[in-house]
């Protein structure tokens, strides 16, 4: 039997974001991840340092799956051009060992990010939060807007995009792929986009901090899903230090983003605390984690009829 590959169009057709949000909520509430095996990601670099292979394996006895997310990141030599990223997820039946499918990795990433952003925003933002500031206009920005809109009634969405072309592409993707027609306003600066917003979402490749703590209201919730390293973050390091920090996994966050994340609260603990989270600014600093990619992959292949 020929191995099935699900591309982004297949993912869009199969996925039900509202269902996945509730699955992810239950996944965190019930502590399913504690029964999984998800080691730290493996990184292999070319001698020049411009090419990187990333492997994120995971096993779940509850889902009966092995999955591995594989990706390459190719950084162009010199200049400010963005890195080229290509990913896929391979899924295997953990009982029989049968290869079930390969799935477009970027599509899974965007679906996962939409659902996970929704769950975290549901528990960390004010219930009456209606304003959203977005920094970045790529596919992850699109995913975050769609996810947040599932759990909050948004009447104001301000976006900072580096170019009019990326702004128009974001508007078109929201309308055509997600049937999302809430008006967007495009801001001339990052400050204008995020100042005094109740929820903020970032998804850029910036190597410099973009958001100053003074622009944020005290009770804001921030979802950071862009590039980060030990030296860089999208949020002012002082703002990060003074926030209630949420992470998918502490060891992964420290590996990817540095020791500041050692104090992070994992999402299962966030669910346990819920209304007892300390009052103040919350920041979800996402480094990615294979367990959530597996959950999104299982959702897609099940709804595509490849998993019972």
UniProtKB/TrEMBL annotation:
GO cellular component terms listed in the entry, alphabetical order: cytoplasm
Pfam families, per database record: OCD_Mu_crystall
Name assigned to this protein: Ornithine cyclodeaminase
UniProt superkingdom: Bacteria
This protein's UniProt keywords: NAD
Keyword Transmembrane helix listed: no
PANTHER family the record matches: KETIMINE REDUCTASE MU-CRYSTALLIN
Family of the protein in this entry: Belongs to the ornithine cyclodeaminase/mu-crystallin family.
Record-level Gene Ontology MF annotations: hormone binding
């Amino acid at each position: 039997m020929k191995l099935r590959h699900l591309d982004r169009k297949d993912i869009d057709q199969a996925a039900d974001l509202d269902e996945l949000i509730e699955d992810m909520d239950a996944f965190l509430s019930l502590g399913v991840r504690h029964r999984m095996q998800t080691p730290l990601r493996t990184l292999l670099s070319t001698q020049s340092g411009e090419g990187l292979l990333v492997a994120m394996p995971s096993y779940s006895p509850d889902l009966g799956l092995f999955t591995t997310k594989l990706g390459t990141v190719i950084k162009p030599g010199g200049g400010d051009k963005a890195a080229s990223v290509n990913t896929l997820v391979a899924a295997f039946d953990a009982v029989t060992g049968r290869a079930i499918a390969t799935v477009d990795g970027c599509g899974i990433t965007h679906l996962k990010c939409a659902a996970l952003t929704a769950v975290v925003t549901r528990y960390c933002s004010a219930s009456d939060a209606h304003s959203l500031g977005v920094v970045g206009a790529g596919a992850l920005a699109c995913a975050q807007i769609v996810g947040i809109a599932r759990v909050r009634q948004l009447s104001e969405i301000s976006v900072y995009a580096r170019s009019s072309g990326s702004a128009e592409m974001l508007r078109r993707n929201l309308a055509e792929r997600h049937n999302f027609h809430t008006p967007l306003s495009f801001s001339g600066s990052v400050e204008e986009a995020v100042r005094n917003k109740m929820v903020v979402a970032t998804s850029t490749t910036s190597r410099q901090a973009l958001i100053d703590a003074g622009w944020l209201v005290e009770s804001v919730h921030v979802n950071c899903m862009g590039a980060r390293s030990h030296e860089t973050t999208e949020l002012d390091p002082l703002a990060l230090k003074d926030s209630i920090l949420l992470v998918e996994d502490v060891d992964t966050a420290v590996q990817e983003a540095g020791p500041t994340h050692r104090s992070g609260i994992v999402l299962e603990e966030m669910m346990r605390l819920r209304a007892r989270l300390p009052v103040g600014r919350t920041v979800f600093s996402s480094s990615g984690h294979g367990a959530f990619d597996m959950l999104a992959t299982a959702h897609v292949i099940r709804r595509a009829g490849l998993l019972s």
